[in-house]
Amino acid sequence: MLCIFLNFVKTPSLSISIPFQITIDIAFIVLLMHAVGGISSGFGVLLIIIIVIGSFASNGRLALYYAAVATIGLLIEHSVRILLFAYPTTSYTQPVMLSLGCFATAWLAHTLSIRMIESQKMASKRGVDLQNMSQINSLITQEMQDGVIIIDQSLNIKHRNSQANHLLSLPDTQASGLTLHSLPDIAKLYLQWVNNKDEEPNFNFQLNNHELKVRFMPIHTNQNTRLSGAVIFIQDWSQLQSKAQQAKLAALGRLTAKIAHEIRNPLSAISHANQLLQEDIVDGNNVRVLEIVEDNIHRIDKIIKDVLELNRRDRTRQEPVELNQFITDFHHQFCAVEKIDPAGFTLRLLDTPQIALFDHRHLTQILWNLCSNGWEHSRKTTASLQLDLKHVVVNLLHIVIADDGNGVAEENRAKLFEPFFTTKSTGSGLGLYISRELAEANGAALQYQAITQGTAFILQLNQSSN
Fold first, then answer.
1. Three-state secondary structure of the chain
2. Of 249, 380, 407, 424, which sits with the fewest C-beta atoms within 10 Å of its C-beta?
3. Sign of dihedral through CA atoms 276, 277, 282, 287?
4. Which residues pair with 232 in a beta bridge?
5. Whole-number pLDDT of residue 1
6. Which residues face 358 on adjacent strands?
7. What are residue 157's phi and psi, to 5 degrees?
8. Do 65 and 51 touch, CB atoms closer than 8 A?
9. Computed from CA positions of residues 306, 312, 314, 317, in that sequence, does the dihedral angle turn out positive or negative?
């Protein structure tokens, strides 16, 4: 009742109330023992239970105090019993043994309490470390260039990073309930990987016009536990190939530029010597041979110019270009230089001025390469070559160059923009490649488009507000 009263009046601190309550419990048990027959009643065992409870409640700090209180109570109770009931003085054996038991229990409880506190501190520290490690891992996965998806044994997606959301067109929010079944292509590859234990964990598949490379790794290192979940790594293989190709071409461009400079000097000497021979030789057969030499000299010089121009693709000087006027001037110049009847090369422009930021020299070269190829492969009749300026959507313009020729064979379409690929015996194979590189250097894009009759190329430009 006293303890209930103390709780009712809200004792200020547990460090005071708990020792007080345990001491009262020990005194009560000792009094109970005295009332029912002393140490022989067996109630002394309850002291051990109270000491254990009190030790754990005080984190082991007061364990020996409780044992000492219990021992004093036992000895006093037995001494009173000797005085009142004439017990022999040699009967202290049982109280002493129980007192020793109380001290042993107190020491054991003290030791266990200390270990529990240390374990709790270590668990708390490890919990903080695990939380920090989880945050670090989450940050690393979010910053990875590869997509990462973690699934459990039920194919539930437990985690995914932003790159995976981008590559697979998933929502940015980490919504629960999303499973691998919502990605049927990857789910099929995963089940194939699970069922074929010895199969390589790398797979390629097409999604949203991208070639993706998927790699599976089991959550557990044991190869027999693939069904317990996996970590899925997703790479944009087409982008990796493009970067590798760009790096190779950049190195090749630097090398070929140096070689081109070295070739130009002896080529100039050969050209000069050939011109001198043409002035001295009047024999018709020899003149024809010298003309063949001259033609091949011009061809080599054209290749050198293209290579040097490719090496200067990043040196752009963009400025506002009014496309209607620019294309009109280009049309007059192209028809005059290439000796084309203007009726064979028609234009369709827009009624309002259209301005785009572009390097004048680069835009001229792109249009010249495309129109030259188009006219060469066309039927060379009325409107065989067409150039259309179209306003597709807001701030997006298309320049479409189409011819009425035989078109491009399907097996060659994937190679159109590769350097040195050509179907002509006299071509260098650099025209389309250089055109695309110059377009990208100006923030534009050059694409091939298959049409019913002939070939079409689309130059996509961003409209300028200036």
1. CHHHHHHHCCCCCHHHHHHHHHHHHHHHHHHHHHHHCHHHHCCCHHHHHHHHHHHHHCCCCCHHHHHHHHHHHHHHHHHHHHHHHCCCHHHHHHHHHHHHHHHHHHHHHHHHHHHHHHHHHHHHHHHHHHHHHHHHHHHHHHHCCCEEEEEECCCEEEEECHHHHHHHCCCCCCCCCCEHHHCHHHHHHHHHHHHCCCCCCEEEEEECCEEEEEEEEECCCCHHHHHHEEEEEEEEHHHHHHHHHHHHHHHHHHHHHHHHHHHHHHHHHHHHHHHHHHHHCCCHHHHHHHHHHHHHHHHHHHHHHHHHHHHCCCCCCCEEEEHHHHHHHHHHHHHHHCCCCHHHEEEECCCCCCEEEECHHHHHHHHHHHHHHHHHHCCCCCCCEEEEEEEEECCEEEEEEEECCCCCCHHHHHHCCCCCCCCCCCCCCCHHHHHHHHHHHCCCEEEEEECCCCEEEEEEEEECCC
2. 424
3. negative
4. 149, 216
5. 47
6. 319
7. -80, 110
8. no
9. negative
Q: So what's the pLDDT on residue 224? A: 57
The pLDDT of residue 314 is 57
In sequence order, what are the residues at sequence separation of 6 or more whose Cβ sits closer than 8 angstroms to the Cβ of residue 167? 147, 207, 210, 212, 234, 236
Give the position of tokens 């009726």: 343
- Give the chain's residues under pLDDT 70: 1-15, 89-90, 137-138, 141-143, 172-176, 197-201, 208-210, 221-225, 238-242, 245-246, 248-250, 252-253, 256, 281-285, 306-315, 420-421, 423-429, 465-466
**How far is the C-alpha of 280 from the C-alpha of 327, rounded, in Å?**
45
The token pair at 198 is 């010895």
End-to-end, the C-alpha distance of the chain in Å comes to 91
CA distance 320 to 359: 8
Copy the structure tokens of residue 27.
Answer: 């005194």
> What's the pLDDT at 7?
54
CB within 8 Å of 308: residues ≥ 6 apart: 257, 260, 261
Please state whether beta strands 385-393 and 455-462 pair in parallel, antiparallel, or not at all (unpaired): unpaired
